[in-house]
Specification:
The chain is α/β, with parallel strands linked by helices. Helix content is 30%, strand content 19%.
Length: 348
C-alpha cells in the first residue's frame, strides 16, 4: 500500500527521481547515516509505504539480509536490479483495506508523503492493524513551513508567504499538511505505546558553519530548486485556482531567498515511531485526551549503527514563519550538532 503525490502533481521524470534520492541523502546526513529510529532486533517482515525510487527499501534490505522488504508505490519507478530480499509492488495506502494480513509486519515505514495523504489518522490506524504485536511503525516527514530562530527570515518574505498559501492549497485539495505536533495524538489514539518523536532542523541552504549541516543545506537547496516549482504548480493551481504563470512569478521571487545565506532559515523534519503493544489496549486503557502524555523515550543510549535515540519534545518556544510555534532550539538535532545561531559560527 503506497501513495505518492497524485501523478498530475509531480511527474516521475528523471529530475524528480533524482530529487527523491537527494532528499534521502539529506535525511541520512541529518541522521548520521541511520535509516530508522526504531530499535529493531532481527526483523523479518518490513514494509515501506510510498517507496519512491526504492532507495530506502534497498538499503534496508542490505542492512537486514534476513528480512523480506516490500516497497509499495503508485508509480513503477524502482530499479530492476535488486537484492534478493526486496521487491516492489504497485498499491495504494489509502485504499479502504490493505492486502496484507493484520499483525503481519515487524516494521512499517513511511516518509515523504506530504501532499499525498488525505487522512493521516486513518493511515496510522491501518499501520497499527498490520503491525505485529511488539512491532514498530515509523513516520519520517518534513514540515514544509520555513522558519528561523534569529529573525533573519522576515515575516514579509516570499518564503513565509509561500508557507502560508501552500498549506491552504493542500487543505483545499484534500491533502492536508500536518504540523510536526499533530502526529503524536494520531499514534496515541491508534494504540501505539513507547512513542518516540525526534525533531531535526533542516537548513534551506548551506548557511550553517557545521560541516554536516552545511552539506545537508547544500543538498536541500538543490532539492528545492529542482522540485519546489513542481509541487507549487500542482497544489496552487488545484487548491487555490492560481494560473501557472502566477506560480512561476512567485517561484522567481522565492529562488533568490532560498539561495541567500544571510537568511538562516530551516524546515523541521519529524521522526516519530511507536510500538504496538504485545496485548491489545482495552477500552479502560484508552488515552486521556484531556491531558495526553508526552513523548516517551525508547532509550537514552548513544546512537547505534542501526538506529538513533530520542529526546522528549517540549512545547513551542520561538516564532514560526507563519506566526505560530516552532521547536525549541535546544530540543532539536539531538543526534547531530545543534544548529548554530551565534554570528561567529554562522557561515553567512
Amino acid at each position: 500500500m503506497a501513495c505518492s503525490p497524485p501523478a498530475s502533481l509531480l511527474e516521475a521524470d528523471d529530475q524528480e527521481l533524482e530529487r527523491i534520492d537527494i532528499k534521502h541523502r539529506v535525511t541520512m546526513l541529518l541522521c548520521s547515516g541511520n535509516l530508522h529510529t526504531a530499535r529493531l532486533v532481527n526483523p523479518k517482515r518490513i514494509l515501506d509505504i510510498g517507496t519512491g525510487t526504492g532507495i530506502w527499501a534497498i538499503e534496508m534490505a542490505e542492512q537486514y539480509p534476513d528480512a523480506q522488504v516490500i516497497g509499495t508505490d503508485l508509480s513503477p519507478i524502482q530499479p530492476q536490479w535488486l537484492p534478493q530480499n526486496v521487491r516492489f509492488e504497485i498499491d495504494d495506502c489509502e485504499a479502504k483495506h490493505w492486502t496484507w494480513p493484520e499483525d503481519h509486519f515487524d516494521y512499517i515505514h513511511s516518509r515523504y508523503m506530504i501532499a499525498s495523504i488525505g487522512n493521516w489518522a486513518s493511515l496510522v490506524r491501518k499501520a497499527y492493524r498490520h503491525t505485529k504485536p511488539g512491532g514498530y511503525f515509523e513516520l519520517q516527514e518534513l514540515d514544509p513551513r520555513f522558519t528561523s530562530d534569529d529573525s533573519t527570515l522576515s515575516p514579509t518574505s516570499n518564503l513565509v508567504y509561500w508557507s502560508k498559501i501552500i498549506i491552504e492549497a493542500a487543505a483545499n485539495y484534500n491533502r492536508p499538511i500536518p504540523r510536526y505536533t499533530d502526529y503524536l495524538s494520531w499514534f496515541e489514539r491508534a494504540g501505539f505505546v513507547d512513542i518516540q518523536q525526534v525533531l531535526l532542523k533542516c537548513p534551506m541552504n548551506p548557511w550553517p558553519k557545521n560541516k554536516v549541516l552545511k552539506e545537508a543545506g547544500r543538498f536541500q537547496l538543490l532539492a528545492h530548486i529542482d522540485g519546489l516549482e513542481g509541487v507549487s504548480l500542482g497544489l496552487l493551481t488545484r487548491g487555490l485556482d492560481w494560473k501557472a504563470e502566477e506560480v512561476k512569478v512567485l517561484m522567481a521571487k522565492i529562488r533568490p531567498e532560498l539561495k541567500n545565506r544571510a537568511i538562516h532559515s530551516y524546515q523541521t523534519k519529524v521522526f516519530i515511531v511507536g510500538r504496538k503493544p504485545e496485548r491489545p489496549r482495552t477500552n479502560t486503557q484508552s488515552t486521556n485526551t484531556n491531558n495526553p502524555p508526552s513523548c516517551r523515550h525508547l532509550s537514552t543510549a548513544p546512537p547505534t549503527p542501526k538506529s538513533f535515540s530520542s529526546s522528549a519534545v517540549g512545547s513551542p518556544a520561538v516564532t514560526h514563519g507563519d506566526g505560530e510555534g516552532s521547536p525549541p532550539p535546544d530540543q532539536i538535532n539531538a543526534f547531530t550538532p545543534t544548529m548554530p545561531l551565534k554570528k561567529d559560527v554562522i557561515d553567512a
